[in-house]
Design a protein that fits this description.
Largest sheet: none
Structural class: mainly alpha
CATH class of the largest domain: Mainly Alpha
CATH architecture of the largest domain: Alpha Horseshoe
Order of helices and strands: HHHHHHHHHHHHHHHHH
Number of helices: 17
CATH topology of the largest domain: Serine Threonine Protein Phosphatase 5, Tetratricopeptide repeat
């Protein structure tokens, strides 16, 4: 599950879910079902709640349910209905991630900017804004947003990972590698442990959890760079494969499978590379439906390369991969 849903659900739960723990209204019941992943029941309760008394809260939660079901027209319509009733930072943030899934990073950047304007001290809003600028190809603004996030907390893992991505896309490959390696050195992987379902829905990529690892996104990013870096002397397929396998042992998702495929291809093992890239495509469809179509096309292009025995060498100017949230 991507950070859009993770942080949006978490933000709403903190903002208003805790106040409804003993509330048996359709709105409250629906939100609890959505939190538990019981989407159809949640939507049914929220439908009734909205019919009886429309609220920003109910529309927001129903948008989250449709987001998990990958129903893009309905999730966007409900998010906008929520916005019309209550223009707050969290709903702008959610709409931004919907636009990211729809391959509309410029629109996403505008929504994230409004979130930042309403709550300038919230680090995840600035990081999301940086990601949207990266996906739009606006590196100066991406660096600026990442820098602002780091000023709030220089040790924040998400901010530091986004900073490294921006540095890489700007062409300073060695510095990006150094920053990611330092981040992983400071935050080593635990010996074992897989995230529970609820932890997967939330901050497994960048935040501590009881059974997961907070640095998974950074490890995946480093594995990708070491497997595909345009500068040949910086590539390290052996290390890339180790990192990608470790990341995949914690979480099975499209972008990690993509990194694993690239690492196998860099080592000349194209049969494994093809299998991993095919799995990445299947996972992407399962995770996001028709979302991230540009990234899906890039996966298909890489698969064709592996079928013809050709490794993939990255072009940091091609930011389609950044569109996937990690």
């Amino acid at each position: 599950m991507n950070r859009a849903l993770c942080l949006a659900i978490f933000a709403i739960f903190l903002a208003c879910g805790c106040n409804s723990v003993f509330d048996s209204s359709d709105e409250a019941m629906g939100s609890r079902y959505v939190q538990r992943g019981m989407l159809d029941k949640g939507i049914a309760h929220l439908d009734r709640g909205i019919q009886n008394s429309p609220s920003a809260y109910a529309y927001h939660y129903r948008a989250l349910a449709y987001m998990q079901k990958n129903d893009y027209p309905k999730m966007l319509a409900d998010a906008k209905s929520s916005l019309a009733l209550d223009d707050n930072a969290e709903i702008r943030y959610l709409i931004g991630w919907i636009y990211m899934r729809m391959d509309k990073p410029q629109l996403a950047a505008k929504e994230f900017g409004k979130s930042v304007g309403k709550e300038p001290g919230k680090q995840e809003f600035l990081c999301a804004q940086a990601e949207s600028f990266l996906a739009s190809g606006d590196l100066p603004k991406a660096k600026e947003a990442a820098s602002k996030a780091l000023k709030l907390n220089p040790n924040d893992i998400y901010s530091r990972t986004i900073e490294a991505k921006a540095i890489y896309c700007a062409g300073d490959f060695k510095l990006a590698i150094d920053k990611l390696e330092q981040l992983l050195k400071e935050n080593p992987a635990p010996a074992s442990g897989k995230p529970a379902f609820w932890e997967r829905m939330h901050d497994i990529w960048f935040r501590p959890s009881s059974r997961g690892w907070k640095c998974l996104g950074a490890e995946d990013q480093l594995a990708w760079i070491l497997a595909t870096c345009p500068e040949a002397k910086l590539r390290n397929p052996d290390k890339a494969l180790i990192l990608a396998k470790q990341a995949q042992s914690f979480l099975e998702c499209s972008c990690i499978r993509d990194s694993l495929a690239a690492a196998y291809a860099a080592k000349g093992n194209f049969e494994e590379a093809k299998a991993c890239e095919q799995k990445a495509l299947a996972l992407l469809r399962n995770e996001f439906g028709d979302g991230y179509a540009v990234y899906s096309a890039k996966l298909s292009e890489r698969l064709e390369r592996y079928k013809h025995g050709k490794p993939y060498v990255d072009n940091p100017a091609d930011l389609a991969r950044i569109m996937i949230t990690r």
